[in-house]
Amino acid sequence: MLAGWRLGQIRRVLQSGGVIAYPTEAVWGLGCNPWQAAAVERVLWLKQRPVEKGLILIAGDMQQFDFLLWDLPRSQLAKLQLSWPGPNTWLVPHQGRLPPWVTGDHATVALRVSDHPLVRQLCAACGPLISTSANPAGRPPARSRLRVEQYFHGELDDVVPGVLGLQRNPSMIRDLQTDSVIRPA
């Protein structure tokens, strides 16, 4: 867990439009404040990822997504509640409640409530974050801080210290409405 002063530093970096790297359940991630277009554009540039693809939002608890989930059918809410926190990413209708630099060309947004203690601490302090694997397109996801530094030397505003969780693979991605698996675990 991060000390209060360190968490405050990271919060200031994110509030000022910075981009961070941090350990997640299986791989290192890149993150930023999803409400700041320039920060998200920088993440996309670092990853060499087109904005049309959209990005994942992570949270520390389900309530951080209330603005997106409040009007879902009970059956869909139950699916989310049963799978979170954990390595489950769901494509959820955003109904125009998020900016296009987060959702890309999609009517859904990818959401995950993490069970990684450090990620939960970050989100509790900073709100939901953009979360995408820390690697340029076509390269393997970073599984160490050293690999993050090799990929993005000098390009990040902060690298959060910590260790990966126990998952071997990035989270499964499923469509909430159809239960289709988009990316297996």
Description:
- This protein is an alpha/beta fold and 185 residues long.
- The chain has a single domain (4-183), classed as DHBP synthase (Alpha-Beta Complex), CATH 3.90.870.10.
- 32% of the residues lie in helices and 21% in strands.
- Strands 7-1-2-6-3-5-4-8-9 form a nine-stranded mixed beta sheet.
- Strand 8 and strand 9 form a beta hairpin.
- Helix 1 (4-15) packs across helix 6.
Short description:
With 185 residues, this protein is an alpha/beta fold.
Topology:
Layout (H helix, E strand, L loop, with lengths): L3 H12 L4 E4 L4 E4 L5 H11 L8 E4 L6 H4 L4 H10 L4 E6 L6 H4 L4 E6 L3 H10 L2 E5 L11 H8 L5 E2 L12 E4 L5 E3 L2
Parallel strand pairs: 1-7, 3-5, 4-8
Antiparallel strand pairs: 1-2, 2-6, 3-6, 4-5, 8-9
Helix pairs in contact: 1-6
Give short descriptive properties of this protein.
DHBP synthase, 185 residues, nine-stranded mixed beta sheet, single chain, alpha/beta, globular
Q: Judging from the principal axes of the Cα atoms, what is the shape? A: globular
CATH architecture: Alpha-Beta Complex
| Rg calculated over all Cα atoms | 15 Å
- What's the average pLDDT? 96
User: How many structural domains does the protein architecture include?
Assistant: 1
Low-confidence stretches: none
Helix content: 25-40%
Structural class of the secondary structure composition?
Answer: alpha/beta
Highest CATH level, the class: Alpha Beta
- The beta-strand count equals 9
CATH homologous superfamily heading: DHBP synthase
| CATH domain topology | DHBP synthase
Strand order of the largest sheet: 7-1-2-6-3-5-4-8-9
User: Biggest sheet, in brief?
Assistant: 9 strands, mixed
Continuous helix count = 7
Report how far the terminal alpha carbons are from each other. 26 Å
